[in-house]
Amino acid sequence: MKITSFFIFFLVLGMYNKFINAYELTVMSIHNSKSITSLNDYKFTISEANGNWQDSLGNYGKSKILFYTESTDNSQTFIKGLGQLDDQNENNIWFIPIRKSDQQAGVGKFQVIDTSKSYNFLINSSCTYAINYFENRSFFKVICK
Asked: N or C: which end of the chain has fewer CB within 10 A?
């Protein structure tokens, strides 16, 4: 059910993107995580995700995201981090991903907080992301309008 909902969300985002002029970003990463879990199943995790990205403008590069995850025994998870995207021309995007959903897949907000000059159009954009995990890898899709 979770994976199916995730792919349906991507399909809807793709159709929506065709009708509006939106910026689209895809990030694929490998994660390294450390966590501690209490007796009452409160779990705190810190993670680093390193990977590659490409966007709808033909840009591409490397990504680094540091984030933390808090979860409880009822499967509710809060995730927040800071990410940096470096493109092929040494331009950068810094963003904060935030979501409150299931750990393995979900939808959240993607707030661009700083950029190199060529990505200034992303500041104050309304961005949504969807993410899914497979083992220690993530697949992350962003739409900004």
From this structure: N
| Interval 73-91: pLDDT, tens | 766 789 999 999 999 999 9
Does residue 31 sit in helix, strand or coil? Answer: strand
Our CA dihedral for 130, 12, 126, 77, rounded to 10 degrees, sits at: -30
pTM of the prediction? 0.80
Q: Name the 3-class secondary structure at 116.
A: coil
Task: Give the C-alpha distances (Å, rounded to integers) separating 46 from 2, 39, 138, 139.
Answer: 23, 19, 15, 18
Kindly report, residue by residue over 90-139, the tens digit of the pLDDT.
999 999 999 887 666 779 998 999 999 999 999 989 899 998 889 999 99
Cα torsion at 93, 99, 104, 105 (round to 10°)?
-80
Please provide residue 107's backbone torsions phi and psi, each rounded to the nearest 5 degrees.
Answer: -125, 140
Widest CA span in the chain? 49
**46-83 pLDDT per residue, tens:** 999 999 999 999 999 999 999 999 988 766 789 999 99
3-state secondary structure of 134: strand
Predicted pLDDT of residue 73: 73
CA neighbor of 17 nearest in space, from 65, 57, 60:
57
